[in-house]
Amino acid sequence: MRKLLLYLLLLAVGYLPNSYAQIDAGFVRDSIEIERGIAGTTDFEPFFRLVNTAFDDDNRPLTSIIYRYLTETELVPNQRQTFEYDEDGNKTMFLLEEWDQGTEAWRALKQEESTYEDGRLAIFLRKRPVDGTLQNRRRWVYQYTMGGMETGKLLQSWNADMGSWENLSRKTTSYDGEERISEQLLERFSGGVWKNSRRRTWTWGMGALQPSQTVSQIWSSMEQDWVNDARKSYGAGPNGLWSSSVVEQWNPNTGEWENDLQEQFAIDLANAESNYSLANWNGEWQANLRGQFTYSPGETQALLQNWNGSEMQYDNFLRSRSMFNSMRLPVQQTGMQSWNGDAGNWENQTYTRRTTYFWRSTEPNSTTEIVQNRCTIPNPYFSGATISCELQAQDFPLNLEVYNLYGQLVLHKQVGSPTFQAETSGLPSGLYVFKLSDDSAVYQLQKVVVAN
Length: 452
Known about the structure:
22-stranded antiparallel β-barrel, four-stranded antiparallel sheet, single chain, 1 helix, mainly beta, 2 domains, 2% helix, Immunoglobulin-like, Lipocalin
């Protein structure tokens, strides 16, 4: 249950998104900087940098490269991700590769392929490398009702010797007359036949927005019947949303349900503050953990606390935070920091991460001239590194402009020769656009990682 609360803590601050999903077609997330917390301090050190190097017409990433920091200024390739999409924007292919330093080539780690029918995922295929060649490994096949609700999910494994798919498991979902979920059945394929494994049933009140109870059962091959496992009963507030729940475990010796966990929800529909608390049963309900979630236009915070029985109070345990810009795009996420009770402050652990996102709305240049790309700019770029252009002296002077990912001009200088340097030490490390031009032509327009 603690893992569930940790998951809620991360989810509340948006710390579990698909790192490469596109939020809005009007904005482009060019790169992501991931820093690792230095344990026992509030400091961070460079860890990874993800750079989206190619996009489709809707600003979805086609290629992303993840660099690993060897030092604070030295980056080396680590992984590469390649994406493909269908005309509806559904991701149809994802390829993950790893950089092989010895051969200086990309080596496939896995490939995922998705097939859609009527806009719904029909087949999900995963491949893994065998002797350097990607081969089938797992396949998920989905079925739906006419209304688009999932009714079946079949998992199969590839038999390379036979050259065919073999059944592993299947999940069947049923619904009541109001199209609310009523049962999920998990079966496993063994000995050429499907065998019951687990079952979960839902109970609903008339017109209820949420179920009042769920029961999970395990199939007993000895008794050839379903055996109770766990039961969860929900309490609802005036708005119809859950306000509490009680989890009970089945005692086969007494043939009765026994209390296990109690959850309390306090959800602020105005997104001001929400709370979640967890208690354990020990003859009576005893406080265990509490999560507090606060929201504002510029920041979201999630706080996890442990119950201190001797002091009869909740003590800080972990926290995560997300920062947003005026367009409500995430710009930085920090999690998870732990509370040092002796020092009375928050500090990093080895698992603490800080992620910074770099966005832009449009390309910073508005020129219609053809970009000639006649210069070589080191990438990553370290302040003072030499930029060389295949231009004649009479082509100068030219203007060097550097834009951040919001399209803002952050550096400008006049260039008087084919070789020159840019002073970028005053810029935060990140992805920028370098533009070299005059009034009639653009000689270079390039995305460059500035590493300071």
